[in-house]
Each structure stands twice: as structure tokens, then as C-alpha cells.
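USER:
Make up one protein:

ASSISTANT:
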Amino acid sequence: MFSLKDKTALVTGSTFGIGLGILKVFARAGANVVMNGRRKPEDHDALMADLSSHGNKAIFVQGDVTKAGERGRMLKESLDAFGRFDILVNNAGSFFDHGWSNLTEEIFDQTFNLNVKGMLFTSRLAIEHFRSTGQRGSIVMVGSVNSFASERGTTCYDMSKGAILMMTRALAVETFKDNINVNALCPGLVDTPLVRRLIGDEAKFRTVGEGVPKGRWCTIEECGYAALYLVSDEGSYMTGQHIILDGGILAVQYTRISDLGTEGLGT
């Protein structure tokens, strides 16, 4: 069950964080995996040894998804290395907002070039390849709970994550007849180096995690297991949809009234 044996998976932006967690889970499921980043990670050799320790193979392909020529080269190198290409996970993305008062066109362009444009045109290349071979293909877009709900000071990031959700549906509609699945994974608070750097303080990091309904942060491997279902044969009927992996965040209606409890409301 949930085997990816002999399949090839490229995960963009996967030298750390959610992308690395997805790579690790795919490798354990038997996939040949392609790590991607703009720079080779310092622990490259150790990562490759770990990722290729499950009877599979692993390579690193350097590339920037915001650059048209590099997108095509990334897919070509993946195909050349393993002779086939089956799975694309569009994980490369980042956060550039510095609050509403500091919003600039440069921040908007930077956010959408990486979080949206890069995903769209990397996906287009993958779709063209899947159509040319007639094989089944799977694409996963990494969105966020911010695809559904916004926060103060994160305007561009939230807009980009909302666009990812609509892009997922649009590409699914375009590929219904092609044996291609396009879905989105939308995590909540995930324990990644980027998030830890943004928060800075360890005590604050723990406090934020305790504020999640499940009482903790999501792990990168848990993101990997959700993505595994989306690209597996068992998940082949699912397309144009999303998995929200948020520990219950979006299930809770939070206002200041919530702090009063039912007694405060007179019920």
C-alpha cells in the first residue's frame, strides 16, 4: 500500500523544511527522488546517503523555479537520471511580507514570481511531459491554511497561497482526460527552519505550538505522508482537491468572544 517503487519524484525547494520531509517519505515508499534548491546544501552527502537508503536512488538538481530556462533543465536532468518522471511537488516558496505599511510592488512581484508563477510554469512542463508519454502523472501544490484565511501583515503571502488553490483547480480541469492528478497540500503551522528563524525565540515558538487546537506543531514528515496519499495509486481518483493539515486551526471559530466561554455568553 502507498508504494512509489520505480517512480521518480521531483520536489522543488526541498533542501530543508516541508520539501525535505516530503522527499524523505517518498524515498521510504520506494521512489527515486530528486532534491532541488537554488544552492547545494552543506550536508548534501549525508542527505543523499539517507534519501537513497531504501533500495532507491537520489540526486540533487540545482535550479531556480523563477527562471524559465532552469525549470526545463530541472525536469530534463530528473528524466535523464532515472529514465522516467512521474511526480512533481511544487514546494518552492517563501514569505517576503514585512507588514501592510511596508508593502511594495517589489515584495508583490517577488512573492508571486516564486509562489505562483514558478509553480504554474513548472507544472506546465510536467503536464506536457505526462501528455507526451501517456503515462499517469501527479502534481502536488503546497499551499497553506493561508489559502483559506488571512492574517494581518501577510497580504502578499496570503494572496499567493489563495492563488495556488485556484491554480490547482484550474490545472485539474485542464487535465481531467489525461490521467493526471493535480491536488494541493495545505499545512498549518509546520516546524521548519524558516519558521523558527522568523519566530526567533524558543519559548515563543513553544507557546505558538501550544495554541494550535492539537497542542503542537506539525512535523515535516506528517506533510510527507499527506502528500504520499495524493501521489499514490490509492489516491488516483482525487484531483482538483486539497488536504488541509492544520491540527484543527480552521475548525475553530476564534473571536474575543471565544475567550469568554459559554458562561460569558449566558448559555
